[in-house]
Amino acid sequence: MRSHRRSRLLAPLMLAPLIAGCFASGGGDDSGDGGGGDGARLRVAFAFPPAENLSPYGADATLLSRLGVTEGLTALDANGSAAPALAESWRRDGDKVWEFTLRDATFQDGGDVTPAAVADSLTRATDAKPAPAALAGVTLSAKAQGERVVLITTAEPDPVLPLRLSSPSLAILSAKAYEKGNGRVDPVGHATGPFELTEVNGATSATLDRFDDYWGGRAQASGIDARFIADGTARANALRTGELDIAEAVPVAQAATLDEKTRRDTATTRTTSLLLNASSGTFEDAGLRAAARGAIDTSVFAEDVYEGYADPSAGIYGPAVTWAEGKRTAPVGRAEAEKPGGATVNLATYDNRPELPEVAQVVKQQLEKAGFKVKLTVREYSRLEGDALAGKFDAFVLARNTLLDTGDPVAVLAGDYTCDGGFNIAQLCDRDVDRAVAEAVGTADTAKRQDAAMAAEARILGTDAVVPLVHQRIITGVADSVQGVILDPYERTLVGTGTRR
């Protein structure tokens, strides 16, 4: 144990509100220690089962953070700014070097969170293939300095590095998590959060126990029994019948069946969009992309499909990104629409979010009315993601949280719409877009960075590779007996130290 280790007794009082309390609902006190008692276990249902064996580098990273398993050096506060997590403070030393001072914390397997362990974990993330979305377009290196400090150096100036390090895909894990080799990462028992994974039953369920040595205080619930239920109606029914305490992503169609007290809707930064494959197939032709965009009437989605639990489309960034509307500019460089002439379109989406198949059906009808021939594929997300990223569909309906990966509005543009983007389902590779995104990435001043992000958005929308359809509100089902559920607009957290029943 490091000689500088301080007593943990003050940690819950001073630090937990910065993390667990950022998005806490009014029902709970997320201050940490549950008074020494053994609280009841929480029964929670998630819409998305593990898609990548719980690797922290892809879609499963958010699942791990929502379960309270993993943490990064930083977190996001309610305003979208970087807040302390495993790092208690940081400072910039020149353009490319940042110094992060660690707090006293312990891995769930008993080891200390040391600078060497943190540097090793971040280095492994930078070497992952494909790279985590939070590192799109960024090269960094990390090294230990003394007993408490980690130095992180970026190849180019990165003014939002503290935001970037809040990404669930850059969670810090112990050295034991990487012992299996071959690039595999095992988070079971090797993370730092208030709940420790003890058993994972494939894509069906997971068991978590309270981690009593958590730096932010002892969780009030003794553990979590998590179930992965892709069927949204089944999630809502299980909540109604008392089988669940918390059900995430309740379908709009099921919202009215829940008692008003158990139904929580949260404005999020999630946008549902139609992505058009710009590199192969029908929509390689910019004129046909323009025809598809012109065929879509986006006004029907918010009120008809989402029954008011959404806002009409405005762009890649929706109204939850409050600064965006006043800075938005018209799309740049759009092609003239061509006649579809019966061109075939292989359209796909997933049913983990039950509204998406209905959205896709409306898109299909509108495209067919314009003269396209459309085949619709609907699968569970984990059976669809690989094909989508490989460009095997002409079009894809995706619900994407634009601030999920880093909290930085530029990151989603780099990850989703540039030639080297790691989540580029649209297969977009456009020189002008890459240039605009690169300019935004290199801008440090907050207001100017926002301006650059909106200029890049205008370039991306001008390619017609993405057609924003609607901006979502997420409905969470919470049993009357449950307090302290964390309703997070960034969808990174759900349960914390103060969540209990």
Helix content: 10-25%
Mean pLDDT: 90
Distance between the termini: 35 Å
**Structural class given helices, strands, pairing?**
alpha+beta
Q: Largest beta sheet, briefly? A: 11 strands, mixed
Runs in which pLDDT lies below 50 for 5 or more consecutive residues are 1-36
Oligomer classification: single chain
Secondary structure tally: strands: 17
Radius of gyration (Å): 22 Å
Structure description:
Helices cover 24% and strands 22% of the residues. It has 13 helices and 17 strands. β6 and β7 form a beta hairpin. It is globular, with a radius of gyration of 22 Å. It starts with 10 loop residues before the first helix and ends in a 23-residue tail after the last strand. The model is unreliable at 1-36 (pLDDT under 50).
Which features characterize this protein?
501 residues, alpha+beta, 11-stranded mixed β-sheet, 4-stranded antiparallel β-sheet, 17 strands, 24% helix, disordered N terminus
In short:
The protein is an alpha+beta fold and 501 residues long. The chain is 24% helix and 22% strand. The longest helix is centred in the C-terminal third of the chain and has 17 residues.
